[in-house]
Design a protein that fits this description.
The protein is an alpha/beta fold. It has ten helices and eight strands. The protein has helices at residues 26-38, 60-77, 89-97, 115-122, 147-165, 184-192, 195-198, 212-217, 228-240, 251-264, and strands spanning 5-11, 43-47, 82-85, 102-105, 125-129, 172-175, 205-206, 245-248. Helix 1 (26-38) packs across helix 2 (60-77), helix 2 runs parallel beside helix 3 (89-97) and helix 4 crosses helix 5 (147-165). The relative contact order is 0.14.
Length: 272
């Protein structure tokens, strides 16, 4: 089992579910991102618009004001991969111009008609995430017949749209969208059957760090900061099934857990 890369989360938002407002300035966000790199992050994901359940949209100009100094500052100090977490093609274009190398889109390039063409124009990696509905209403009453096959099929449709727009196949990533228009049962089924997405041949990004599904399993974890154990369990489950990137808040702990799991499977190069 090959150890997946770890993507560290850099939220430049006042209202993210876990760390909203903590990185209120570009300087604080840049410093946080560099700390995550020191802790072992392979990729940094910078976002300026919260997509938590019930979140309101952010104006394009405000989102640009939040993320652009952070991306430029990180790129000036680090030469690793930087992802821009946005649904807006104009924000993605500006971010890639400033040094971002991946577009992480929770709408799977579906929020704007021009998004697929812009993704092809930029030539960067693109993460297509599944979401039922939109952030303000997605958790109202999510329903599926077979959540695993429906999410896979919906993502394959979006991948085909991206391909037809000119996005190179090797640039396309899939994300099942844990917590985005899903109940606990849906999230558990998607995690337990993540190999269904892996088997499509597209690399898979998995993000369940500190999410509310952990509280649904363990009622004592009402504070997102108390969800480390659950986050690690989910990350390890995704890694065992072939996820290529794990998106997390707690980089050091996740890297350590993945290293130990790789050692147990004999893939770490450690001689016993």
């Amino acid at each position: 089992m090959r150890r997946p890369r770890v993507m560290g989360i850099v939220n430049v938002t006042p209202d993210s579910f876990s760390d909203g407002g903590r990185l209120a300035t570009a300087e604080a966000a840049i410093a946080h991102g560099l700390r995550l790199v020191e802790q072992g992050a392979d990729i940094l994901d910078v976002g300026g618009e919260s997509t938590r359940p019930g979140a309101d949209p952010v104006a394009e100009a405000e989102e640009l004001t939040r993320v652009m100094p952070v991306i430029a500052g990180l790129r000036a100090r680090w030469d690793g991969p930087i992802s821009i977490d946005t649904i807006k093609p104009a924000v993605a274009r500006a971010a890639v111009g400033a040094g971002a190398t991946m577009w992480n889109d929770v709408s799977a390039l579906g929020a704007y008609a021009e998004s697929p063409a812009v993704a092809a124009e930029l030539g960067c990696d693109v993460v297509l995430m599944h979401m039922q509905g939109e952030p303000r209403t997605m958790q109202a009453d999510p329903r599926y017949g077979d959540v695993v096959s429906e999410v896979r099929d919906a993502l394959m449709v979006r991948a085909q749209v991206a391909l037809e727009a000119g996005v190179e196949r090797e640039r396309i990533w899939l994300d099942p969208g844990i917590g985005f228009g899903k109940t606990l049962a849906h999230n558990l089924a998607l995690t337990a059957n993540l190999q269904t997405l892996v088997e499509t041949g597209f690399p898979v990004l998995f993000g369940a760090s500190r999410k509310r599904m952990i509280q649904a399993v363990d009622a004592s974890a009402s504070d997102p900061l108390d969800r480390l154990g659950g986050s690690l369990a989910l990350a390890l489950a995704a890694a065992r099934q072939g996820a290529s990137i794990i998106r997390v808040h707690d980089v050091r702990e996740t890297v350590q857990a993945l290293k130990v799991q790789a050692s147990l499977s004999g893939e770490s190069g450690v001689t016993l």
